[in-house]
Amino acid sequence: MIETYLQKKLNEVKKSDFPPFLDHLLQKIRMHINNQGKILLVTLTKKSSEEVTNFLVAQGFKAFYLHSEIATIDRWEIIKKLRTGEIDIIVGVNLLREGIDLPEVTMIGVLDADKEGFLRSTTSLIQIIGRAARNPQSEVVLYADSFTESMIKALRETYRRRRIQELYNTKNGITPKSALSNVKSLETVKDDLSLDQSFGSITKGKVKKLKKATKAEREIILKDLKIQLDDAIKAREFEKAALIRDQIKEISGE
Q1: Secondary structure of the chain in the HEC alphabet?
Q2: pLDDT tens-digit profile of 172-219?
């Protein structure tokens, strides 16, 4: 759905050409930004995440894409910029792997939600929807041409859990509040990084700077590097895997 539409060149796209789902998405984005909210958009492929981001930027939005080809430290810097208000939208394939709370996010848009597969399975959709639970004002919108079994099961489970939580809150006099999470500065672990959407792994110079990070920050970054290592091995990219393994050893002090 979204990939097919975005095959058009940006200069060929006119507002009158917007399909209903895209017009709805843009309206939702504007509404949440006007209310000081932040947005996560979940796509199916790296290419589509870049295309969606380019489209949003062309529409005047402050958006960045986020996927595994962007260096780990750069990904965390992009997330920090979302949380501090420098950007409003992050577009990515599997934002769950970042493993952090984003209480500032008030909308999650799942594009091509009806494309059955691992990234749109019942479990994945439930996890994506759970991302919005950090803020009581948040919402999740599944953009699809039709309902799938995975979507129906995920929605039923979400409403079941919500009902249980609402009953518990009422019984105990609890008023839902947004989760609190400090925005940690990564200036101490950066080495003159720039957000130019550059690709690649962490350089040795950056690895040395990462040693100055807190224990919690190192654990998060090491977890992400191990995921990259597994991906590289599965793809039989052994030179890349060796480099990542060396980075893991250097950061962990092994």
Answers
A1: CHHHHCCCCHHHCCHHHCCHHHHHHHHHHHHHHHCCCEEEEECCCHHHHHHHHHHHHHCCCCEEEECCCECHHHHHHHHHHHHCCCCCEEEECCHHHHCCCCCCEEEEEECCCCCCCHHHCHHHHHHHHHHHHHCCCCEEEECCCCCCHHHHHHHHHHHHHHHHHHHHHHHHCCCCCCCCCCCCCCHHHCCCCCCCCCECCCCHHHHHHHCCCCHHHHHHHHHHHHHHHHHHHHCCCHHHHHHHHHHHHHHHCC
A2: 898 877 765 555 544 433 433 333 333 334 444 454 455 556 677 677
Taking Cα atoms as reference points, which of 222, 214, 227 lies closest to residue 254? 222
How confident is the model at residue 212, as a pLDDT?
56
Are 109 and 205 within one domain? no
How many CB atoms neighbour CB 66 within 10 A?
Answer: 25
Question: How many CA atoms does the CB half-sphere of 150 hold within 13 Å?
Answer: 20
Model pLDDT, residue 239? 64
Q: Is 58 in the same domain as 130?
A: yes
Q: Is residue 219 part of a domain?
A: yes
Domain of residue 156, residue span: 2-172
The residue type found at 248 is I
At 246 the pLDDT is 74
